[in-house]
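Box 3.1. Reading complex inputs
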Amino acid sequence: MQLYQQQQIKIHNSLTGKKEIFKPINEGHIGMYVCGPTVYSNVHLGNVRTFMSFDMIFRYLKHLGYKVRYVRNITDAGHLENDADTGEDKITKKARLEQIEPMEVVQRYTVDFHNILNTFNFLPPSIEPTATGHIIEQIELIKTIIDNGFAYEVNGSVYFDVHKFNKSHEYGKLSKRKLDDLIHNTRALDGQSDKKNPQDFALWKKAEPQHIMRWPSPWSDGFPGWHLECTAMSTKYLGEQFDIHGGGMDLKFPHHECEIAQNEAAIGKSPVNYWMHANMLELNGQRMSKTTGNTVNPDELLSGNNKFFSKAYAPSVIRFFIAQSSYRSVLDLTDEGLLASEKGFFRLMDAINLLETLKASDKSTIDIQAWKKACYDAMNDDFNSPILIAHLFDAAKYINQVKEGQASVTSEDLKVLAETINTFTFDILGLENVTKKESGTDKLSGAVDLLIKLRQEARANKDFALSDKIRDELAEVGIQLKDGKEGTTFSVN
RNA sequence: GGCGUCAUGGCCGAGUGGCUAGGCAAAGGUCUGCAAAACCUUGUACAGCGGUUCGAAUCCGCUUGACGCCUCCA
């Protein structure tokens, strides 16, 4: 019996705008695709937030016993800079700017991306395919769409015929747009386009002579269009229809809309059962933007080397901060917010670290099974991590109460409590117990225990000058002493 | 201009047609040699204006404001 057979998940489906009971296509198996980064610059913090949300979702689904194939692509083929035919590939542009090979740019920023995600304790996806590794699949997909009559070739480029598609299908159903509205609101393009209609989008672009990234195709030496790679790779690894497709809110239109259109045009089926969109991350109440300077890189946030934040924050603190809001809400990144989360985070860690010191009684003063169920209920409700965290704090309070002798727990319940809180905090939220030192722990705690003992003696002798000196100077090097009923413990900040 | 999302206490941030979210901050108390930590107690919030309802902050309409997409962007 797997856990998922006892838990019923609800997911907010962008397609319907409602929370729906989640039912995978194949029982016990889940296919999940998330649009990955374009590796032409350092990974964006907002990007990290989105992937972190899906990392948590991936972790929870796995915890429930599902066999999850999680595919997150790397876009390394570059997207067009604009609609015009003179549009330059983003990656090519950067390469020229920096006088290096396109694939060198891709390599550098792919490594950066992985480094950042590792720092944040991400689980790797099951498959991380690259767009350049799937050119053949994309060409085959274009052929099929042309054969089905939904694309046309002009001067070596191939475009998706949105108007024709819309006659038999519903273009815009994900983003709730009507083609008529789009027609009336499309700006006039500068220069000439080969497209029949401005709403059409490229499946294949003929490469200009100076364009370095290019592949042969039946139509021209060129490169695939913006939206094609995700369709090709999701179909290849997850099948024509799969369970969950995620990404940032800003990808809803046109990117995801076009993915649906490509799938329906090629295969005749809508590819995804549950579309999930993570909301935006703001910095001090405003969208992050390189042009206005209102932006901070993940490594700058982690190092504290930036002008927005008063200090460096541990990766788990940032993770905790993000988990304290719902993935569907706009989240405002501020120094105050991070400071508040940091305090809460360490309070939670301190409580968890007290678990092994708790003494069991013959009676529990809370209903541990009800608490455990509440944790699952929170995550089952569209992965509501803020509610889960509220329950974790309830447990922290309970742990402290038991420690203080104001509450009690049976050894059986203590086991359930410890197991559950560890599972949700570390396995599912992906937090790391940073107050526990990995190496040198024994030596450090041996030394601090000695100081604690000396301080005890000083206090017994009423030599408070000495005892306070030990306490205060330890605090200065980041070691906080905590006097409790059972003696003194310490934590390292 | 079009489409969409959202407006919650000092701050952050959930949720809900009638019953405590939670965190941070604040105040009082317990403990302590004094502190810190921990625990206990306290705050009665839901943009404005109408409407539906026995009852709405929660549903509907309008107004105002913020944000996203419509052009690469998670």
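In summary: Chain A has 16 helices and 15 strands.
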